Amino acid sequence: MLENSKLIQDLKGENNRAFGLLYEEHFHSVRNIILKHQGTEADAEDLFQDAMLVFLEKMRKDNFQPNASLKTYIVAICKYIWYKRKKEGDRFVSLETGQLNLKEVEEFIEEERTYLDILQSYLLRITDHCNRLIQDMFFANKSLHQIKTESHLS
After folding, report:
1. Are residues 141 and 65 in the same domain?
2. What is the pLDDT of residue 2?
3. How far is CA 90 from the centre of its chain?
């Protein structure tokens, strides 16, 4: 999430290269989901564009703080729009007509958060020292003796 801050700033500035990067990194996930749920390649492309508009609208809010990875946001928005379309009988749904509720989108995103997203959000809230200890113990698989030695703990 932290590594996405530069990309988010570029997206807020409507940098086309940033949107291209999002497309390259996340379209295949959206495409696979839509094809799995009886959609077409064209459906996936339309849906991804619609999701980018919703995502851009959310980012333009001054208080935008992602509580999930950008992939989770994009995929969740796409799923929300797809399910909403299916519920509406395949009719086009849009922000302008009020058919897409940003609060509902946010709730949908929250439900889609992965374990890793949740863990990362908690890790961002703790001190650097605690974060290093957790990283060393669980991700670097260091022994307690090695951690004690490197951290100068007795």
Report:
1. no
2. 38
3. 25
